[in-house]
């Protein structure tokens, strides 16, 4: 009897060990290694500034290791393409915005991805108006001065933007339409070169995201003439909107959000969304974002997805009407 009991015990232990070995291992906590946040634009621009702020604050607050990685080119579509091709594990994220997700696909006809299908919305970060500015040494003191000058000499006033077909360029185009004037658009390869030429007086105006221009505005080297949002920026409360300057209902803003490759596990998306939204609720993060001329705004992944789909459809017509082409 004792021998039989021992045999049964041995068999039970063996079967138990086999079952344990075959059972799936519990899911590892996320994250267990550094996270790459792809920045689809060059250093120094609005997207880069906000991306590095998010990476830094997540590293400090959530104790994650988040590394910003610039992958610039083709209006931000190269960086998005890299994110689309990455493994959907949550360790490759990308900072998307209006230029590369909403406008780029209508300009670059050979893209192999669809932002509404090949990316997973994770977290909205901020929105910002476009600012129309000029050097402090410029003769243009107000937006009315620009309009009057453009009507007197059509096509002679130049404005620099971060590139042909960007949301910034199209904001300038929409302003020309609203004001009934003709300006000369000078496209640059990114925000920083356009900013440098505006400061040097090589272009009459700078049309820029507010985060890209905010440092030089604070330094007193750029004179902001108007912002393009429906209401004034909390960062520049004394600067009128384009609508207040005589062009009713003018409202153009851009937004920034974190996305992941399609197929990224919902649990990972929920975790990252919760951490970013937690950061956006802190006074420190709010102040840091507003210091760059942007406004923090938290959203659920579903809300960000709805925003993307709505603007993706809406801006198709704007791009086509502008005649913007990629050469």
UniProtKB/TrEMBL annotation:
Q: Does the keyword Signal apply?
A: yes
Q: Which UniProt keywords apply?
A: Signal
Q: Which SUPFAM superfamilies match?
A: Periplasmic binding protein-like II
InterPro entries hit by this protein: BUG, Bug_dom1
Report the leader peptide range. 1-21
Name the protein family: Belongs to the UPF0065 (bug) family.
Could you identify this protein by its name?
LacI family transcriptional regulator
Species this protein is from:
Acidovorax temperans
């Amino acid at each position: 009897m004792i021998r039989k009991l021992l045999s049964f015990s041995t068999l039970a232990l063996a079967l138990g060990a086999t079952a344990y070995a075959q059972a799936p291992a519990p899911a590892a906590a996320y994250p267990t290694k550094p996270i790459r946040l792809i920045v689809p634009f060059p250093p120094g621009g609005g997207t880069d500034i906000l991306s590095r702020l998010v990476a830094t604050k997540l590293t400090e607050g959530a104790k994650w290791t988040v590394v910003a990685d610039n992958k610039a080119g083709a209006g931000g579509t190269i960086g998005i393409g890299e994110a689309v091709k990455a493994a959907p594990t949550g360790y490759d994220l990308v900072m998307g915005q209006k230029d590369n997700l909403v406008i780029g696909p209508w300009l670059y006809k050979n893209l192999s991805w669809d932002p509404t299908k090949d990316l997973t919305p994770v977290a909205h970060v901020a929105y910002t108006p476009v600012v129309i500015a000029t050097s402090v040494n410029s003769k243009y003191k107000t937006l009315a001065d620009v309009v009057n000058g453009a009507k007197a000499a059509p096509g002679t006033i130049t404005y620099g933007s971060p590139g042909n077909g960007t949301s910034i360029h199209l904001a300038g185009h929409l302003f020309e339409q609203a004001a009934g004037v003709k300006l000369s658009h000078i496209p640059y390869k990114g925000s920083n070169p356009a900013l440098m030429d505006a400061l040097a007086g090589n272009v009459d105006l700078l049309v820029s995201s507010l985060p890209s221009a905010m440092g030089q505005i604070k330094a007193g080297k750029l004179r902001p003439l108007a912002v393009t949002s429906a209401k004034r920026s909390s960062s520049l409360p004394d600067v009128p909107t384009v609508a207040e300057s005589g062009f009713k209902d003018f409202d153009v803003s851009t937004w920034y959000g974190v996305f992941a490759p399609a197929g990224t596990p919902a649990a990972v998306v929920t975790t990252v969304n919760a951490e970013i939204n937690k950061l956006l609720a802190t006074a420190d993060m709010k102040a840091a974002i507003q210091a760059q001329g942007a406004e923090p705004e938290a959203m659920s992944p579903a809300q960000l997805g709805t925003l993307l789909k709505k603007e993706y459809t809406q801006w198709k017509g704007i791009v086509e009407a502008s005649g913007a082409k990629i050469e």
